[in-house]
Design brief:
Order of helices and strands: HEEEEE
Distance between the termini: 55 Å
Shape: elongated
Structural class: mainly beta
Number of helices: 1
Radius of gyration: 21 Å
Strand content: 35-45%
Length: about 130
Amino acid sequence: MHPIILMILFGLTVEQTTSLCAPTEYIIHVEKRECAYCLAINTTVCAGYCMTRDSNGKKLLLQSALSQNVCMYKDLVYQTVRIPGCSSHTVPFYSYPVAVSCKCGKCNTDYSDCVQEAIKANYCTKPQKPSNM
């Protein structure tokens, strides 16, 4: 077998065994202006490392041999909580995703934020109530 084909096959095998993309515990802090309390919600999100192939010799490789993979949801469910202390004219419910399983794949900008930025305000400014999960 040709050495380049062996190298590509080896790379694909190593990619599957070295990617560390899995559901990870995460706390979301949720509050609304019209509600008296903030909730600290324990959930899971997809996080981790995915192998990426981006060669300096891009012109020599097929486009399918190059990839920028991200850790993303494979299966997810939505949970809904009620924020306590909301005024009567406010919808007190908040729905959030819970990662069941994750995968490495190409990021779809139609429904995902493909740039990971630091969360600027993941804290409470009101009295905190833990969610009942």
